[in-house]
Design goal:
- The chain is α+β, with helices and mostly antiparallel strands and 174 residues long.
- The chain is built from three helices and nine strands, in the order ββββββαβββαα.
- It has helices at residues 71-83, 136-144, 150-165; strands spanning 4-8, 14-20, 31-39, 45-50, 58-59, 61-64, 93-100, 105-113, 128-134.
- The strands form three sheets. Strands 6-3-8-7 form a four-stranded mixed beta sheet, sandwiched between helices. Strands 5-4-9 form a three-stranded antiparallel beta sheet. It has a two-stranded antiparallel sheet with strand order 1-2.
- The radius of gyration is 16 Å and the shape is globular.
Length: 174
């Protein structure tokens, strides 16, 4: 089945146009990209190793909104598709929303506090090789060794700054 993406203008208004997944984004138009960082009760983050077909790097859960999906619907769908977890939309906290001119995307980053057991997670093998819980310093080390997706690490740092403002327990913020 062919997936489509809605196109937005620079003010994040739907244009009524759409493109097929993988097609280039027309100049002056944007698509919506979502990601979520899931943190458990011990302060570890659920990190996935992407399949070789998806570059084999470590990352967080995320993807592109499909035609007709809101950002929140898209992140719920990505968590269900990639991890097999049904999560109530109200559990997600939007911590960042922005636009990238270079990538022609609107980013919506979410935070979720959830502690699933690893054996309860049902991976989408086409996209995800495995998942594990990591401490912030472990994520930082993967990034420093070129093994964590750059843009996901940037958003992780943005999350860490946001968490400081929320008075949330989060250690090793550097």
């Amino acid at each position: 089945m062919v997936e489509y993406r809605d196109l937005y203008d620079k003010n994040r208004k739907l244009t009524g146009e759409k493109i097929k997944k993988g097609d280039p984004i027309p100049k002056g138009k944007y698509i919506n990209v979502v990601m979520v960082f899931i943190r458990n009760s011990t302060g570890h983050y659920l990190i996935q190793k992407r399949s070789k077909a998806k570059n084999g790097l470590y990352a967080t859960t995320g993807g592109h909104a499909k035609t007709g999906e809101t950002s929140l619907q898209a992140i719920c769908a990505e968590v269900k598709e990639e991890l097999g977890l049904d999560v109530e939309p109200s559990k997600f906290q939007l911590y960042y929303s922005g636009r990238s001119e270079e990538d022609q995307v609107f980013y919506d980053d979410y935070f979720l506090e959830l502690s699933p057991r690893l054996f309860d997670i049902k991976l989408q093998k086409e996209e995800v090789s495995f998942v594990c819980w990591m401490q912030p310093w472990e994520i930082r080390n993967l990034f420093r060794h070129g093994r964590f997706m750059d843009n996901h690490y940037e958003e992780f740092l943005r999350l860490r700054e946001w968490l400081k403002t929320q008075n949330a327990k989060d250690s090793d913020v550097s």
